[in-house]
Specification:
Helix content is 26%, strand content 28%. The strands form two sheets. A six-stranded mixed beta sheet has the order 5-2-9-4-6-7. Strands 1-10-3-8 form a four-stranded antiparallel beta sheet. Strand 6, helix 3 and strand 7 form a beta-alpha-beta unit. The termini are far apart.
Length: 255
């Protein structure tokens, strides 16, 4: 009687395991992607509109960022030159003002640019404002207690701790003081010299204000002789969770 064979389990070849391993890896990757997206939606969806917007500003052109705020909110306006093109200098004119209008929604349908304003996305870039809104802005400026209207030059050219850069920043401060003295002795009430802030660090220039009245406000950056790549932001304390005691500015989206 021949010996009885004991059945054995056939081992799969390595070539047969590869497709199975790929399927398992793809399934795990998809699961992690979905979980990450869901976590992002639940933890940071309220900050989605507050990531700094990056935009190219052409030579002698201006780009603005608009958002609607309520009276009493703390708002931090932020501008940073990411890159000065064609070996230009990283500096720009910055101005922030408002309320531009007290309307609850800006209808920009007559604007030929790509920008649109809606109830779901109150923040946007824009090159133009209808003449009616400009007229309302001029009227709002008549009462300085109910409006914001500030302008300043920001220069990152001399940022750093090197001795020559420290000397240049001091020279800019002396020039600012001289301009202020000339303004005090000027008989022209419209003569308002624009001060230059020489940033000691390569970081966004930020300034925080209390909103004096409900409405749309804007922060704008203007390029001089060279095109710039600029980041702009306008963060409100009500949406970002308050003001950072260390910096004195509204929390960033990263905190």
């Amino acid at each position: 009687m021949p010996p009885r064979r004991i059945p054995t389990t056939r081992q799969p070849r390595p070539q047969q395991l590869l497709p199975l391993l790929l399927i398992i890896i793809l399934a795990l990757s998809l699961h992690l992607h979905i979980s990450s997206a869901q976590a992002h939606d639940t933890t940071s969806s309220s900050y989605a509109n507050h990531i700094p917007i990056r935009y190219k500003v052409n030579q002698k052109q201006t780009e603005c960022l608009y958002e609607r705020f309520q009276k009493g909110e703390q708002v931090t306006f932020s501008v940073f030159v990411v890159e000065a093109l064609l070996n230009g200098k990283p500096k720009c004119d910055l101005f922030y003002e408002g309320p531009i209008t007290t309307q609850t929604r800006i209808d920009d349908s007559n604007n030929n640019s790509h920008d649109r304003y809606s109830n779901n996305n109150n923040m946007s870039l824009g090159r133009m404002i209808r003449q009616g809104l400009l007229n309302e802005l001029v009227e709002n400026r008549r009462d300085p207690n109910k409006s914001l209207n500030h302008r300043i030059k920001v220069d990152w050219t001399h940022a750093g701790e090197e001795e020559d850069k420290l000397l240049m920043r001091k020279e800019i401060e002396r020039a600012n003081s001289k301009d202020q003295q000339q303004r005090q002795h000027s008989n022209d009430p419209n003569h308002k010299p624009i001060s230059t802030f020489a940033s000691p660090k390569i970081e966004p220039f930020e300034i925080t204000n209390t909103i004096p009245a409900d409405g749309y406000y804007r922060v704008c950056a203007q390029a001089e002789l060279q095109a710039l790549v600029i980041e702009m932001d306008a963060r409100s304390s009500s949406k970002m969770g308050g003001v950072d005691e260390e910096t004195g500015h509204v929390y960033t989206y990263a905190k």
